[in-house]
Specification:
With about 250 residues, the protein is of the alpha/beta class. About 30% of the residues lie in helices and about 25% in strands. It has eight helices and twelve strands. The strands form two sheets. A seven-stranded mixed β-sheet has the order 1-2-3-4-5-6-7, with helices on one face. Helix 5 (about 105-110) runs antiparallel to helix 6 (about 115-125) and helix 7 (about 205-215) runs antiparallel to helix 8 (about 230-245). The longest helix is centred in the first third of the chain and has 15 residues, at about 45-60. It is globular and about 50 Å long. About 50% of the residues are buried.
Length: about 250
Amino acid sequence: MTVTWEEAGWERLAAGVGRCRLPGWDCTVGLVVGEGSALMIDAGSGLAEGARLRAEAQALAGHAVTHLALTHPHFDHVFGAAEFADAEVFGAVGVERVLTDEREALRGDAVENGLHARVADEAVAALAHPRHLAFVAVPDEWTLSLGGDRQVLLVNAGPGHTSHDLAVVVQGVPGSPPVVFCGDLVEESGDPQAGPDAVPSHWPAALDRLLGLGGEDALYVPGHGAVVDAGFVRAQRDALATRFGVSR
């Protein structure tokens, strides 16, 4: 049985498109519903959270999640991925290497940032990794059909926040502007976080790419925080360029 976005505690952004802000790290997950299919965007910070998101998404869509897009390989976005084992998984090229070869580093980062060690251990042991490398190099794109007239564009928009930043662009929803799921290339509830895997010299260009894809009227969904507009993304791009000394 389907439920409304409001009943599920999700924010409806357009017909068949919504997102949820998770507790703890204020991480955003998204859902795009198609005809007999559904795309989940990111998977939460642990197996229990992933299972809850899978159940909520199925109630919203009226059918199982068939696709999962991982915006980047940080624990708060990927540690629930194993709960979507039956879905096709998409990520920017190189994500699969991080999720298979750097699991202990992911675990360490998660525990350092407050995730319970047992939750981190369970997630790392079960971690699913992308089976589809949709992109080869920036700025390659992959058009994903979700049935009916619903299509989304998966874009290897980075590097920037990490070396493996994936954006999801939903266009063509009647009466609604484009919706751009930005991952942590954009953050609203705090300053953008630049860890050791960030590529600051390319980050402003990645935001330029998002602006070119969405345009002035799009809704931009950050990895953390409230939905923003093009002006916010542009201002954050300029702030990052200043912060990291990137000439334009």
